[in-house]
Specification:
Strand content: 15-25%
Radius of gyration: 23 Å
Number of helices: 14
Strand order of the largest sheet: 2-3-1-4-5
């Protein structure tokens, strides 16, 4: 999974890059602006540039400088898709996202007068202003010593790739495509290759609360795949809705799981059993630490290595089972993700 953060001056074309990545490259879009709009409306405030700044700064001060983008990043991880986080505006947000795997920061800029004219044409809630106000708003967000507050100068200066949007949309799209060629087409390792196959299997999942997938391999040969879905012949969550069951995790937290579905790991093991395929000595790839039931099945079918993309926040019991059984457990990333959706 690749995460792209987008920053830049006001009206420079962040949304244009987002549109291109979503429509032509299948990225999933997460917007700080949309996140703040929801909160502003919840507070009964008018949606404008001032309320965006006030509420954004308030949320960052209450939680952390990176809290908003951290919330969006968790949603992105759950999707399992390449994603875009639009409107990265503070040093704290940049620093937090830098710690995430496969993260790249894009910045876009253009002549101020051109940007103002584009903003007027866009006509969003924050764009009904004159040119002088437009410039004043940008200067207010351009530099600030407080890591909780907007500092576009810092964000743009720390971007991996910068785009000049002074020409046509086609010119900008061409610049973006050239950069994508650099970051998307690196030859993956074997673990990355099989994890990408697991992510592809996840796209077949039929429960929107957790579209996870799994592949099991041996000697670098694919044996079986699986994804989250209801037992064969039974209705799926995407068709009839979820069936919830509350469980108490080992750490005392309560999870609200959908129990209509069979987990991806379980489905893959079932496929092997039906086809008489031995999984002894194999390696299993999945998105999160398997649950306790999946862990026990993995142990019993002889799998000796489990590779997860992320750590599940309530996965300590499974980790201990694997340790006791001598199953090698590895994580692409040490980041612990709270994931309630299987």
């Amino acid at each position: 999974m690749i995460t792209i953060g987008i920053t830049g001056t006001l009206g420079a074309g962040k949304g244009t890059i987002v549109d291109y990545l979503v429509k032509n490259r299948g990225f999933v879009h997460y917007s700080v602006r949309a996140f703040l709009t929801e909160e502003i409306q919840r507070r009964g405030m008018e949606v404008n540039r001032d309320s965006m700044t006030i509420v954004g700064n308030d949320l960052r001060a209450q939680h952390s400088p990176s809290w908003i983008v951290e919330q969006l990043y968790e949603r992105a991880v759950a999707s399992g898709c390449n994603c875009i986080i639009e409107s990265v505006r503070t040093p704290g947000e940049v620093q937090a996202l830098r710690d995430k795997p496969n993260f790249y920061l894009f910045a876009v800029d253009a002549d101020p007068r051109v940007r103002y004219e584009r903003a007027v044409l866009r006509g969003s809630e924050t764009d009904h202003i004159d040119y002088n106000t437009f410039i004043a708003n940008e200067q207010r967000e351009m530099d600030n010593a407080d890591p909780n507050k907007q500092n576009l100068k810092y964000c743009i200066g720390h971007a991996d790739f910068c785009f000049d949007n002074g020409g046509t949309i086609e010119d900008l799209n061409h610049q973006v495509e050239e950069v994508l060629a650099k970051i998307l087409y690196r030859r993956p390792s074997w673990d990355e290759y099989f994890m990408e196959l697991a992510d592809t299997a996840a796209k077949r999942a039929t429960c929107d609360r957790g579209r996870s997938g799994c592949v099991i391999v041996k000697d670098r040969q694919l044996l079986v795949t699986g994804y989250v879905g209801s037992p064969a012949g039974l209705p799926h969550c995407d068709e009839v809705g979820h069936l919830f069951h509350k469980t108490i995790n080992p750490d005392g937290t309560i999870s609200n799981h959908c129990v209509r579905t069979v987990h991806a790991e379980q489905n893959a093991i079932c496929q092997a059993a039906r086809r008489g395929i031995s999984l002894d000595g194999g390696t299993l790839y999945c998105r999160m630490t398997p649950c306790r039931t999946c862990a026990m099945l993995i142990i019993n079918c002889g799998i000796k290595r489990v590779v997860c993309e992320y750590k599940y926040h309530a996965g300590s019991e499974s980790e201990e089972l694997f340790r006791q059984a001598g199953v090698q457990l590895e994580f692409f990333h040490d980041e612990v993700v709270r994931y309630e959706n299987q």
